[in-house]
Specification:
Layout (H helix, E strand, L loop, with lengths): L8 E5 L5 H8 L5 H4 L7 H10 L4 H4 L2 E7 L4 E11 L4 E8 L9 H16 L4 E7 L3 H9 L3 E12 L2 E11 L2
Parallel strand pairs: 4-5
Antiparallel strand pairs: 1-2, 2-3, 3-4, 5-7, 6-7
Helix pairs in contact: 1-3
């Protein structure tokens, strides 16, 4: 049995009553550069997304889970995306919405839980992550989890008339 619960919190499927939280996350312009978002999402569109969130990862090619703290409050989202079962790989991404909930071990634990699910439940061989070169917290987080920096895409993201690089991390399940 795969465990999606840790000492700091747990991961769970999206629920219909997550609409307001999802709306807040997706429309927070402070994290748009991470997700590549360029325009706000309507509640209607997010409601349609939630109605289809039950789809199997093999059908949807992605899995999005809520990161909840020990008080059962959703504080972030974690994703497997670009799921490729033929080549046994997927991308992984994480966001903790509010600054006050960061640097408390919840993000690290959430990544460990999803990594365990990906490697032992989905039998993936590798995970990869794309991290902006100036995102010190995420760079540290993925390195701490044993992801290797395998490349840099220079001037990859344009924000506020400034180009930023993106670091590609990879972890292979041996």
């Amino acid at each position: 049995m795969l465990n999606l619960k840790g000492k700091n919190g747990y991961l769970r499927a999206l629920e219909p009553d997550d609409l307001d939280f999802l709306y807040e996350v997706e429309n927070n312009t402070g994290i748009w550069e991470i997700s590549g978002t360029t325009a706000p999402y309507s509640k209607h569109l997010l409601q349609l997304y939630l109605e289809n969130a039950h789809k199997d990862i093999y059908e949807a090619k992605q899995l999005r889970l809520c990161i909840c703290n020990t008080s059962d409050k959703a504080v972030g989202l974690i994703d497997l995306f670009d799921f490729d079962p033929h080549n046994h790989r997927a991308g992984i991404g994480i966001v903790i919405l509010e600054e006050k909930d960061r640097n408390k071990g919840l993000g690290l634990e959430a990544l460990q839980l999803l990594e365990n699910y990906a490697f032992n439940g989905l039998h993936l061989r590798q995970l990869y992550a794309n991290v902006l070169s100036d995102n010190e917290a995420s760079l540290h987080l993925f390195q701490k989890l044993g992801f290797s920096m395998v490349g840099e895409k220079k001037d990859w993201v344009l924000q506020n008339n400034e180009y930023k690089g993106e670091i590609l991390f990879q972890k292979i399940n041996k």
